[in-house]
């Protein structure tokens, strides 16, 4: 990979319709270039102290390079389930193995003039030391909910992650979940 070559452009993705049904397949780079709807996972990871894993994406990412995100995750590969992708992506990006299965909370369609993907939002508790994937993550820290809220207006965030985070906060309010996730304090 050269310094300016984006990551994973050749990875094959399932292309889906407005009901999230598979209608074809395409390489990731083509899916992005042609604005083809595909699938994605968002996993909010908290540590043993209930802080949220926050990171800045590398400059080599195909979408939203050098932006901050409060989720780990990514695209669902061709033939892969959301749950399989969530665990794979969380372990890869956090640099851990043996993570508990992320808990699925809800699915939504993220759609703008530039992007379209069905997204499932998850939560997971990661109590082991993390070793983030250097090819994907340029910087990371665990932030309290309050620290994260303060940074929302200061840092450039991935628009899809920000949309997922706002939906997650609303989901917790609607479902009477605790402030710090589905697992309680």
- Percentage of residues in strands: 25-35%
Strand order across the largest sheet: 6-3-8-7
SSE-based structural type? alpha+beta
Major sheet characteristics: 4 strands, mixed
Number of helices: 4
Shape label: globular
N-to-C SSE series? EEHEEEEHEEEHH
What kind of assembly state do the chains in view correspond to? single chain
Mean pLDDT: 91
Describe what this molecule looks like in 3D.
Helices cover 23% and strands 31% of the residues. It has 4 helices and 9 strands, in the order ββαββββαβββαα. The strands form 3 sheets. It has a 4-stranded mixed beta sheet with strand order 6-3-8-7, with helices on both faces. Strands 5-4-9 form a 3-stranded antiparallel beta sheet. The longest helix is centred in the C-terminal third of the chain and has 17 residues.
Any descriptors?
9 strands, 4 helices, 185 residues, single chain, disordered N terminus, three-stranded antiparallel sheet, four-stranded mixed sheet, alpha+beta
């Amino acid at each position: 990979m050269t310094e300016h070559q984006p990551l994973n452009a050749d990875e094959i993705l399932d292309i889906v319709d407005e009901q999230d049904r598979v209608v074809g397949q395409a390489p990731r780079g083509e899916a992005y270039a042609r604005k083809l709807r595909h699938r994605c996972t968002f996993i909010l990871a908290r540590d043993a102290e209930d802080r949220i894993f926050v990171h800045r994406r590398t400059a080599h990412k195909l979408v939203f390079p050098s932006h901050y995100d409060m989720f780990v995750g990514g695209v669902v590969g061709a033939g892969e389930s959301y749950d399989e992708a969530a665990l794979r992506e969380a372990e890869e990006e956090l640099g851990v193995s043996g993570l508990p299965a992320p808990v699925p909370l809800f699915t939504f369609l993220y759609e703008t003039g530039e992007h379209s993907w069905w997204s499932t939002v998850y939560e997971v508790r990661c109590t082991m030391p993390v070793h983030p994937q250097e090819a994907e993550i340029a910087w990371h820290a665990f932030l309290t909910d309050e620290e994260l809220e303060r940074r929302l207006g200061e840092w450039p965030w991935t628009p899809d992650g920000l949309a997922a985070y706002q939906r997650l906060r609303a989901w917790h309010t609607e479902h009477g979940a605790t402030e710090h996730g589905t697992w309680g304090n």
